[in-house]
Amino acid sequence: xxxxxxxxxxxxxxxxxxxxxxxxxxxxxxxxxxxxxxxxxxxxxxxxxxxxxxxxxxxxxxxxxxxxxxxxxxxxxxxxxxxxxxxxxxxxxxxxxxxxxxxxxxxxxxxxxxxxxxxxxxxxxxxxxxxxxxxxxxxxxxxxxxxxxxxxxxxxxxxxxxxxxxxxxxxxxxxxxxxxxxxxxxxxxxxxxxxxxxxxxxxxxxxxxxxxxxxxxxxxxxxxxxxxxxxxxxxxxxxxxxxxxxxxxxxxxxxxxxxxxxxxxxxxxxxxxxxxxxxxxxxxxxxxxxxxxxxxxxxxxxxxxxxxxxxxxxxxxxxxxxxxxxxxxxxxxxxxxxxxxxxxxxxxxxxxxxxxxxxxxxxxxxxxxxxxxxxxxxxxxxxxxxxxxxxxxxxxxxxxxxxxxxxxxxxxxxxxxxxxxxxxxxxxxxxxxxxxxxxxxxxxxxxxxxxxxxxxxxxxxxxxxxxxxxxxxxxxxxxxxxxxxxxxxxxxxxxxxxxxxxxxxxxxxxxxxxxxxxxxxxxxxxxxxxxxxxxxxxxxxxxxxxxxxxxxxxxxxxxxxxxxxxxxxxxxxxxxxxxxxxxxxxxxxxxxxxxxxxxxxxxxxxxxxxxxxxxxxxxxxxxxxxxxxxxxxxxxxxxxxxxxxxxxxxxxxxxxxxxxxxxxxxxxxxxxxxxxxxxxxxxxx
Length: 685
Hints:
Blueprint: E1 7-9, H1 10-17, H2 21-30, E2 39-40, E3 45-48, H3 49-58, H4 67-76, H5 82-98, H6 102-107, H7 111-130, H8 146-159, H9 161-175, H10 185-194, E4 201-204, H11 211-215, E5 221-226, H12 229-242, E6 248-253, E7 267-272, H13 302-312, E8 314-324, H14 335-343, E9 347-352, E10 366-371, E11 382-387, H15 401-418, E12 428-432, H16 433-436, H17 457-478, E13 493-495, H18 496-502, E14 505-509, H19 521-524, E15 525-527, H20 529-534, E16 540-541, E17 562-565, E18 574-575, E19 584-585, E20 589-594, H21 601-608, H22 611-616, E21 618-620, E22 625-627, E23 633-635, H23 639-679
Parallel strand pairs: 4-5, 4-7, 5-6, 7-8, 9-11, 15-19
Antiparallel strand pairs: 1-3, 2-3, 8-10, 9-10, 11-12, 13-23, 14-20, 15-16, 17-18, 17-20, 21-22
């Protein structure tokens, strides 16, 4: 075996071939020419990747290895680990972004020339982009990384350097879900928009994967600090490729509270998603730190320490937007700091997001918008509180994210311009600061918002009752007929992976893509994992394309496609209807597009929903379940029989949708009556 050759585990071979691990074990036992292990352990051996690919192709089990899978396998099997692989691959991609012709100049070079010339060019480019103290450390030798770098360059020629790095970085984050706390794209874009358009200098002192700075429209410089050195390096490369070359990027590693890398830096905006509930933030060491201008935070108030750290770095009048846990708005240990923030006019708005908007998903996190007070100005006397959970959705469903974001931005823009906005019961209110300066200094939005009156009063509730009665009658009419008894089936079966290889269906993974420049609404809609689960229309939005990165084409769904979410462990498969056709496919959702001359979509979706089918195709971790769509089984039946089953599954889906509507209307009626009876708009009769 060549020195430093890439290695792959049995699980990796299974992913390459689209089979289960049991199939790989069978190949090892039945085929004498199957590649021998070259490393690992007795229980988890590893194999040379090139030899495995060659064997699979010779056996006809892998007609062609997708280039993106080959690239990820090379990164995943790098001898120094995936972060090291992404550092060298990202450095090459940054070179290619600056000089697209560089891949051509290296394509004719030998491996030895490639490894000898590249390090110096990489170091020069890194220092020019990040300054001399950048966190991207390269190995002394690139000999073992040449296959990875060549595959990276080949993939980037068609996909683009920035998109290639996003693919690799995204795969790395997905493979380590418990290691990182990520800020989702939607909240990140909302935070950047709340901070204002086109700030000059922006800082994120707890940058993580760089989502907040990537969403920012900074025109001068981006500054970031991350306590994890490996993540700091990878985030630096991500920001460099996602940002206009004219914007300076500076990323440092270290603990921002204990070892601030930007002590003298003053910026226009700070965006921050700090660590929550961290009792080891430096309380015992930083008691006399000058950053505590609004009061020394208690040991349990790490978020208020990060908040004051952020305020210390903005100019007078500069903006800070923080993602905060809801407890920070009401804990007694933080009331003195909150009181001083209010008295001096630093805290301008508290926005409660819907539960699930960002991790931890069970909590309705808050956004705090702050302005550093002008020492010569008069402090404002009002605070804006906004509860996004009060924005009406469809029936009992909560409002889609784009509606939440637009509502928050509209109200904030009016409040920021005029100092006050009309109150909306249950949604937003402008509060005099003096009303909040009591013993609790509680700024939780829901506690200061009167509940919305039952919309339309008793007449509207009567209308809901009539619609519910009609829906319940339709539910009874569409209820499935009594099932006919039968023996357990003994069909010959195939898998989704085998159907895809045979051309009977097209399988695509969602999650990529950027919006088109034409601003078309259809091009921006995303069918999210949540939409598939609840049977709703698309509610997501594609991120905007970067001026220097072009447009990454998303996977668009068509009527008759079958979409399957892969996380959560539920048996869900949905046939796309005309209302969702044309939307982009969201993250953690797979698209199956059957050839209707061989495979009925309703038949396919129905059998994919079987509980036993989902159980055997799922992998179970301590905190999550992931579905391997390729392993889902489908009976081999003639098309006429498929359509017979498909029609039955279609009527079940219609019955399920009617039940869902009845549930929503019932919830709406019950809650409306409770609200109406308690606020007096409905009488007990």
